[in-house]
């Protein structure tokens, strides 16, 4: 059972690395921001899965906070970049 869970976590981490590679190849700032927002969401989902596996709800609360608030910074940065391009 543990080997299956470890395999699932490895697959989740591998899926998290795909947007990082896409951000590295792209020169467009919007593509990089989308890729990093995707990494943020996937990291919070991994935190939630680990918290359920460990039966530690304190880690789960941190994962939920990261999931709900983590992309707010990216939205603010996207708005600032959009306003700077208009100037």
From TrEMBL:
Organism domain of life: Bacteria
Transmembrane segments: 6-24, 33-53, 59-81
Keywords: Membrane, Transmembrane, Transmembrane helix
The protein's name in its UniProt record: Multisubunit Na+/H+ antiporter, MnhF subunit
Organism per entry: Chamaesiphon minutus (strain ATCC 27169 / PCC 6605)
